[in-house]
Specification:
about 170 residues; alpha+beta; globular
């Protein structure tokens, strides 16, 4: 996909996202859009709970809620390093959590992650994409950083709204 059509699709996505008040609905749309724009097979948006030092996602393409320690896996490493990560051979990468593949039956061939920062530069989540034909590259990383910034305000506000409703 060339950059002009990618950014045109991103504009349409932004309009749709504004109509998704619930975090779950927004995560579904974000995941679908990120997969489409980066030609990946799967996408998860992990939300970072700093109090529990935990990452969780409510949507991983039909897989039930996944919770991991923020100290584990490539998503946890993304939080620690505060930068994107690409692993085009995750089974040879000691940071990769093979247990999730074993639990879900899915086989991860390559993975790319990007931190999602709040307006005050705290990490609020991790965007994670899996299985792009031919693997991920630096151009994908640049776009993931842009996309993470693009969705950050929505995630920050939707998370705050959801927390208020749970009280």
């Amino acid at each position: 996909m060339d950059n002009s059509s990618r950014y045109a699709k991103l504009t349409e996505f932004g309009k749709k996202l504004l109509g998704k008040p619930s975090l779950n609905d927004g995560l579904v749309l974000i995941s679908k859009t990120a997969k489409d724009l980066l030609n990946a097979d799967r996408c998860s948006i992990y939300i970072y709970d700093s109090e529990k030092n935990e990452l969780w996602t409510t949507f991983a393409d039909g897989i039930s809620r996944i919770r991991i320690s923020a100290d584990e896996g490539l998503a946890g490493y993304t939080i620690k390093e505060r930068k994107p990560i690409i692993s085009n051979d995750p089974y040879k990468d000691s940071r990769f959590l093979k247990e999730i593949d074993h639990k879900t039956g899915y086989i991860t061939k390559n993975i790319a992650t990007s931190p999602v920062f709040s307006s005050d530069r705290k990490i609020i989540g991790v965007l994670q994409l899996l299985n792009k034909e031919g693997g991920f590259n630096k151009e994908d990383t640049r776009f993931m950083i842009f996309f993470s910034h693009y969705i950050s305000t929505y995630l920050e506000l939707a998370s705050m709204f959801e927390d208020e409703n749970e009280e």
